[in-house]
Amino acid sequence: MSGRRHIPVRTCIGCREREAQKEMLRLVRTPNGSLRLDAAGRQPGRGGYLHRREDCWKKFAKRGGTVRSFRSAVQLQARQALLEELRAGADL
Ligand SMILES: [Zn+2]
User: Fold this and answer.
1) Which CATH number belongs to the domain containing residue 68 in this structure?
2) Ligand 1 midpoint to CA 4 (Å)
3) Contact 86/57 with Cβ under 8 angstroms?
4) CA–CA separation, 56 vs 14, rounded Å?
5) CA of 74 to the centre of ligand 1 (A)
6) H or E element that contains 25
7) ∠ Cα 33 75 20 (to 5°)
8) C-beta of residue 25 within 8 angstroms of C-beta of residue 55
9) Residue 13 domain-assigned (yes or no)
């Protein structure tokens, strides 16, 4: 899907622009529907990616509906909890 490029590229679930995977934060949807920041990028489960920008985090937190990477909708509460976690924990 990434064509001839060697660098894996992912789509940001905030702004929906594509970026090199290594530049992005990985999120994993847990079975109970919440989202965890996957700092090491190795946790199993449906993953999604966000830029390291609060702008994108906010866009994702505000937007409703199904997130394709997670194959399901993510509840507003889970999205806002993630936003808090990113603000508190991500040392950017
Ligand atoms: Zn983005």
Assistant:
1) 3.30.1230.10
2) 23
3) yes
4) 4
5) 17
6) strand 25-29
7) 75
8) no
9) yes
Two structure tokens written together for 17: 């622009």
pLDDT tens-digit profile, the chain (92 residues):
555 668 899 999 999 999 999 999 999 988 888 898 898 878 888 889 999 999 999 999 988 677 778 878 888 889 999 999 899 875 55
Distance between Cα 85 and ligand 1 center (Å): 17
Q: Residue 85, SS3? A: helix
Domain, as residue range, for 74: 9-85
* CA–CA distance, 17 with 42 (Å, rounded to integer): 22
Instruction: Please tell me the predicted confidence (pLDDT) of residue 60.
Output: 93
- 65 CA from centroid of ligand 1 (Å): 17
The number of distinct structural domains making up the chain is 1
**From the CA of 72, how far away is ligand 1's center (Å)?**
19
